[in-house]
Amino acid sequence: MSGSMSSPRLRNAGEHDLAELNAVVEAAVMGWSLPERVKRLAVDSYRYTAEDMLHLAMRVAVDENGRIVGVAAFEQASRRETPGGVSGLLLHGLYVAPAAQRRGIGGALLASVVKAARYAGHEGVLVKASRDAVEFFKARGFQRAGDESASAYPNLFWLPLSA
Fold this sequence. Notes:
By secondary structure, the protein is an alpha+beta fold. The protein has a single domain (9-160), classed as Gcn5-related N-acetyltransferase (GNAT) (Aminopeptidase, 3-Layer(aba) Sandwich), CATH 3.40.630. It is built from 5 helices and 7 strands; from the N terminus they run βαααβββαβαββ. It has a 7-stranded mixed β-sheet. β4 (89-96), α4 (105-119) and β5 form a beta-alpha-beta unit.
C-alpha cells in the first residue's frame, strides 16, 4: 500500500471504535524502533479506554472499506507545558497502521487537530513525540519546545498557530 491516499475520510471516534482503533495503535507501536520486549511492555499504556474517551477528543481515518487506518487523540494542553503558558491543544497520540503509512493519513489527521485548535482559539499545538516521529513533526513546522536535556519529555514540540 504505497502512494498517496486521496484525502482520507476522517470522522470522530466513538466508544464502539475502541477495539479497532486500539488495533491500529498496537500495530503502530510495535513498528517503533525499540527492542521488542520494550514495545511489548509499553503497548498496553498506549491503548485507549472508554474512560479516555470521556477526556480526549478522538478522530479516526478510515479507508475505502470503512476500516480504521489512523487515530488522533487530543485534549487541552496544560499551560504549565506550553511555551509562555499560552493556550494550546496537546496531541496525545497520532497513530497510522503500518500498511497505510506514507499515504498522507498522519498529515490529514494532524491537519484536523490543527483546525480544531484554531477553531477553539488556541495559540498552538503541543506534542510529546516518540523518537521515531520527530522528523514527521519537524517537517510540518513543529519546533522543539524547551531544553531537550532538562525536560521529562526530550521530544516536546510546539506548533505556533498564526491568527
